[in-house]
Amino acid sequence: MSIRTKWIALIVAVVVMLVGMQLYYGNLGQTKAQNATPETTFDWWIYSGTSSEYYANYAENPAVQYTLRRGWGPEDKGVALNFLQPPPGSESDNYTTMIASGDLPDIIDAVICEPPRIMCEKGYGLEITEYVQKYMPNYMALVHSNPVYFNNAVSLDEEGNEHYYSLTNFFDDYDSVFQGFMYRRDWIVKYGTNPVTGEAFTGGYTDPEDVDSWVDDVVFPSGETDPKYISDWEWMFEIFTRAQADLGITGKYCMSLYYPGFTWSGGLLSCFGGGVNVWYQDAEGQVHFGGNEEPFKTYLECMHAWYEKGWLDHDFNQRTSDAFYQIDSTSVRQGMIGMWNGQQSELGGRLNMHDGGWTEGIFVAGTAYPINDLYGPDSCRFVEPNCVMSGELTEGGVIITPKAKDKDLATLCSYLDYFYGEEGAMIRSLGLNADQVADFTENTFYADHGLPHGAYQISAEGKYRKDDVLVKDSGQLNTAVGFNKAPGLRLVSRIDLGFAPSYQASLDRWIQYPNTGFFLGTRTTNEMSQEDSGRCDDIRARTLEYMTKNCADFITGKSNFGRDWDRWCAVLKKYRIDSVTEIFQYYVDNYPFR
């Protein structure tokens, strides 16, 4: 081979390598400390970035760049961050490939990781106890200020010593969720009557141009102005049926349902006595498997009754490609359905197409999960739902990997600790304020996007009020102005998002009941050994697969409760569900919550 040929081959190999890196990580980008030297560079894998309409790589985030202008740690060193960002739609595969190859970055977004302790046992994570305790005073103060923070951020050994395997995100209050059950309240006004007086309801928009300016005098059978019980929901279904008949909507239904017939996190099924259809713990700390218990059976009996009456989507179990918050979205957006699980962007009058069709005059209101007052034994009635998808006080965070063990972790941890303090928490939660934007003249992102005075101002009530540009934003500008990928404290209670009262009321109803019965993701599972975690994962996967394939048959009537329920329970027993219950109970008993 000639020298020229060898050089060509070498160049081709380098190009292939660079293309491979681009395909593997998506967009590569680096932010560097501008005023502090020397630099310490860390590679940071993030699960997802920001819409490309704002910047190609997360390194261009103005809030990220602002925080890297100064030095950190005992030696006032600068930090440089190299963000590794998977191509959209390939996040999970990208993570799996990264872990399997062992080609780890210094920092991993923990949104889809195994529990931190397991990550460290497998060699994917690095215990950082020494650095947390020495260089992260803000983090340590928060961890010990709230038992929920402590339980989800700290592992204890048999002597009671604290161990830190990751950095956890904290919320100063329960945040709203992005989705929930919602219903056409305009149909209630138009087709319903007062359950006591029989008089017609009145209501409508006070400002035709304002999608949230709805006022009405609706009262439900429970006597409440919002639905509270299962009986309230059934009262609505009857109204929805009349509305659909009057409007000429045929072949549709009153309420959508996720294709397996349930959601594993609980939701509607926890309205029938509490718990979920997999593993959960009750108020006394006892672990249960709910898939063969009376509350789950009662839930299925209720869903079967609704199915038989035509209130449920008869094709629900065929919509396997629909996310639970986007079921049959075409019918929903055409205004043909009375109740569904949807997103914040569908509340109020936001679905009105103004074309004279079925969405004309629509007003969508969010509703809390209902309390069962009609079905099953007394033990399943009048119990508040306790396993619901609601806001939490902790989430995700980051894991530092062994690749960083020889790097300047004192500087890195000092930098990350900034986001657990007041100023850093604001930059993480909202973005830069007016003074910071004015000082950051080398970056014009804020001015270019209509935010010359920063992302927020202080309101008369002393709260942080989002700028109107961000309040009205229907895209991802909110995520582009702040460093939301940083581990840190998320401020909720002190932020005024500027929502209209009716819109805020819907968000509040979605988190009306606290999620007290949840099990997965708690400190119990974080403390598990790799062996126990593996056993539980294997049995849980096979059990959930069986339930997903067969549960809907009880709702549609293909399976009979009198004939098939005992067989259902026997099959679940064969999957060794009791062994998982015992493992969970061991950790609940030996690693109690503070």
How would you concisely characterize the structure shown here?
The chain is α+β, with helices and mostly antiparallel strands.
Description:
The chain is of the alpha+beta class. Helices cover 36% and strands 13% of the residues. It contains 23 helices and 19 strands. The strands form six sheets. The chain has a seven-stranded mixed beta sheet with strand order 1-3-2-4-15-7-18. The longest helix has 23 residues, at 3-25. The termini are far apart. Mean pLDDT is 89; it is low at 1-28.
List keywords for this structure.
single chain; 594 residues; alpha+beta; seven-stranded mixed β-sheet; 36% helix
What general form does the structure show? globular
Q: Structural class, please? A: alpha+beta
Distance between the termini: 70 Å
Strands, count: 19
Question: Taking all residues together, what is the mean pLDDT?
Answer: 89
- Sketch the major β-sheet: 7 strands, mixed
Strand order of the largest sheet: 1-3-2-4-15-7-18
Integer-rounded radius of gyration:
26 Å
Helix content: 25-40%
Low-confidence stretches: 1-28
Sheet-strand content, in percent, reads: 5-15%
User: What's the total helix number?
Assistant: 23
